[in-house]
Write a structure and sequence with these properties.
Blueprint lengths: L1 E2 L3 H11 L8 E2 L2 H11 L4 E3 L8 H14 L7 E5 L4 H10 L3 E4 L4 H12 L1
Parallel strand pairs: 1-2, 1-3, 3-4, 4-5
Helix pairs in contact: 2-3
């Protein structure tokens, strides 16, 4: 699942994942991402940090809380954000993200990260 409110980012990630054997669902904000996680349990989440309604950090914390309450195994959540500072990385990891990736992201970097967490 990709949680991102920017159509250009969604189009780019869709293009990167095309013909790679992955099925991508999109959540336009963090609240929808949490709902889709609970209803569908995707294998991996690419989580933008800055989104309307509910940001990616809050959504990640909500997902981790739901996983703990339901004894679900943790789903890899990869922060995918333009913020590359040490503070931004620390914030995403403290919120429960598995890894922090920065935009703009190269196709090979994205595919390597997805593969690393799915296999």
């Amino acid at each position: 699942m990709l949680a991102d409110d920017c159509e250009d980012n969604v189009s780019l990630i869709e293009a990167y994942l095309q013909n790679c054997g992955y099925e991508l669902t999109v959540a336009e904000n963090g609240r929808i991402a949490v709902q889709k996680m609970i209803s569908g349990k995707p294998q991996l989440v690419l989580m933008d940090i800055q989104m309307p309604v509910m940001d990616g950090l809050e959504a990640t914390r909500a997902i981790r809380q739901w996983e703990a309450e339901t004894n679900s195994s943790p789903t890899p959540i990869l922060a995918l954000t333009a913020h590359a500072t040490t503070e931004a990385i620390r914030s995403s990891l403290e919120a429960g993200c598995t890894e922090h990736l920065t935009k703009p992201i190269k196709k090979s970097t994205l595919l390597d990260a997805v593969s690393r967490h799915l296999h």
